[in-house]
Each structure stands twice: as C-alpha cells, then as structure tokens.
C-alpha cells in the first residue's frame, strides 16, 4: 500500500514537471524579441538572420522546438548561450554548486536557530522570555531577506569592519576567506527563514502538548520536558518537516537577490545577467531548473511524510 502511494506521488511529480516545462517554454517563446536578432545584433542582414534561425531551430514549428529542448534537457544538454556561444550545462552546473553551498548552509543555520527557540517559546509561552521570542519571530518574518542583507553589510562589514562586504572565494583556494565571505549572506538568508520556522515549531509543539497521550504521560509522573522529548517531538516534527522543505525551496529562489547584493557568482547572479542580456536559452534553463528543484523537494516531502506518519500508509 505504501509503495502504491509513493508511486502515485512519483507519477504526479512527473506530470507536474511536464506541465511546468510546457509553461516555461511557451512563456519564453511568446516573449518579445528574436533570438537570432539578439545573437547577431541589429545590423545583421536577412540572410544571416535566416541562417541563424535555422541554426537555433527557431524556424521550426513550436512543437518541434519543444521536443528538441525537452530531449536536450532530459539528457543534460541545455544548448548554447546566444551571447557567448558557450555550452549552458557546465556554466549552470558551476554556478549551481555555489548556490547549493549558500542555501544548504543557510538552511542548517535556520533550523539550528528555529528548533530550540520554537520549543522554548512553546514551553514558556506564558513567561516573558517565551513571549519575547514569539514577538521577535513575528518581526523577523516582516523583514525581507535583502533588507537584512543590507543591514548586515552596513553594520558588520562597513561600520565594524569585521567581515568582507561582498565577493566569493572558492573553498579550495582559501578556506578561511571562503568562510569569512560566506557568513553574511548565510545570515541574511537564515534570519528570515529561522523566524518563519520558529513560529511553526512553536505552533506544532503547542498542538501536541494538548493531546491526550501527552496528558497521560504527565499523569504517570513524567516532567513536561521529558514528556515532550519522549512523546511529543516526533509528532510535532511532521508539520515542521513540510514547512522546512517549502522554505528550502524558497531559499533557492530567494538566493537570487542575496547573490546580487553580495556579488556571489551563483545561479541567481547568472539568471540576472542572462535577463539583462536577453540570453533566452540561459533564462529558460535556469527557470526550468529552479522549477524542477522546487517540485523535487515537494515530492521528497510527500514521501518522507508517508514514511513517518503511519496513518498515511493505508
């Protein structure tokens, strides 16, 4: 029964990816601008434009263009850049590694902050410290990540001079410089996400503390903290897991702005460069990649939820 449910999740995931690929392809095809004209410039002759359209395949019917693009995407070949002519796949892969480091580190920091604060705020909800944590998390949710980034740069990098304000160093070249330049963008991303997760952790813990099995455990003589750790955290983790996965997807898309603020050569910076240059193949590849990452995270959440919750196995 569980295998059938996971198979259903996977089929729904494949259908969502297929529909998303159609939407991305159509939207970028109806966008104004001729790819051949962008590649050759405004002074190109009609003969050169026709030759370039044949080379790019844009003179073929849309269904043929879509099939060619989809086949290349499935085999890991996203075509070539209109501006530089270089292959898109290695370029996107190099930038994606940078973004992955930034996003994973930010998510780890956000969880490390949110879980203890959320549990403490729930267990101390009637005390001043619990109320203060809840209020601070509400304020953190209202602050956009790019505003947090600007504040961190202004205070820590410019006024105090503790850390570099921008730039990126590969860890293999200078690990110390890599860590120093990673701290501020990670904090800028993690601050907002940790505030959101803190609210959800607090709410989940409050929900389980009112359950009958928790009151039974307390009646047997267990303390509040031992009851929560032994009986409540497992059930409280299920809704938090869903939100954490959705926030991870939000981090991937939110990194676009943060990379621009801190001049980090990630997938977000590449996307902004491609948009400004109207390099449509790169834009199409990155947007589709972000969609696939988001859908894949949702699929993994559904599978993990089914494995952790016995009620979903039947």
Structure description:
By secondary structure, this protein is mainly α. It is built from 12 helices and no strands. It has helices at 2-29, 35-40, 46-56, 62-74, 88-123, 128-142, 145-159, 175-209, 212-219, 224-261, 267-277, 280-308. Helix 1 (2-29) runs antiparallel to helix 12 (280-308) and helix 8 (175-209) packs across helix 10 (224-261). The longest helix is centred in the C-terminal third of the chain and has 38 residues, at 224-261. The chain is globular. The N and C termini lie close together (6 Å).
Task: Give the topology, please.
Elements: H1 2-29, H2 35-40, H3 46-56, H4 62-74, H5 88-123, H6 128-142, H7 145-159, H8 175-209, H9 212-219, H10 224-261, H11 267-277, H12 280-308
Helix pairs in contact: 1-12, 5-6, 5-8, 5-10, 5-11, 6-8, 7-8, 7-10, 8-10, 9-10, 10-11, 10-12, 11-12
Summarize this structure briefly.
By secondary structure, this protein is mainly alpha-helical. The chain has helices at residues 2-29, 35-40, 46-56, 62-74, 88-123, 128-142, 145-159, 175-209, 212-219, 224-261, 267-277, 280-308.
CATH topology of the largest domain: MetI-like fold
Low-confidence stretches: none
Q: Tell me the name of the CATH class of the largest domain.
A: Mainly Alpha
Mean pLDDT: 79
Offer a few descriptive terms.
314 residues; MetI-like fold; 12 helices; mainly alpha; 2 domains
């Amino acid at each position: 029964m569980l295998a059938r449910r996971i198979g259903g999740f996977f089929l729904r995931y494949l259908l969502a990816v297929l529909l998303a690929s159609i939407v991305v392809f159509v939207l970028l095809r109806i966008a104004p601008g001729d790819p051949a004209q962008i590649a050759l410039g405004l002074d190109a002759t009609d003969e050169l434009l026709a030759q370039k359209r044949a080379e790019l395949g844009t003179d073929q019917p849309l269904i043929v263009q879509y099939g060619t693009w989809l086949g290349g995407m499935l085999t890991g070949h996203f075509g070539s850049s209109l501006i530089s002519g270089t292959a898109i796949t290695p370029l996107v892969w190099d930038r994606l590694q940078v973004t992955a480091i930034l996003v994973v580190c930010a998510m780890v920091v956000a969880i490390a902050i949110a879980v203890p604060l959320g549990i403490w705020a729930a267990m101390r909800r009637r005390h001043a410290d619990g109320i203060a944590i809840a209020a601070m998390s509400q304020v953190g949710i209202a602050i956009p990540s790019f505003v947090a980034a600007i504040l961190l740069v202004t205070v820590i990098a410019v006024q105090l001079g503790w850390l570099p304000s921008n730039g990126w160093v590969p860890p293999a070249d200078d690990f110390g410089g890599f860590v120093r330049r990673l701290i501020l963008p990670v904090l800028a991303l993690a601050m907002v996400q940790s505030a959101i997760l803190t609210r959800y952790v607090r709410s989940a813990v409050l929900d389980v503390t009112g359950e009958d099995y928790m009151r039974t455990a307390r009646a047997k003589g267990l303390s509040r903290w031992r009851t929560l750790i032994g009986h409540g955290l497992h059930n409280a983790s299920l809704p938090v897991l869903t939100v954490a996965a959705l926030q991870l997807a939000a981090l991937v898309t939110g990194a676009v702005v943060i990379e621009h603020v801190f001049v980090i050569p990630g997938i977000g910076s590449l996307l902004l460069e491609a948009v400004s240059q109207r390099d449509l193949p790169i834009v199409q590849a990155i947007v589709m990649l972000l969609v696939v990452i988001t859908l894949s995270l949702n699929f993994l959440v559904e599978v993990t939820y089914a494995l952790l919750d016995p009620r979903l196995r039947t």
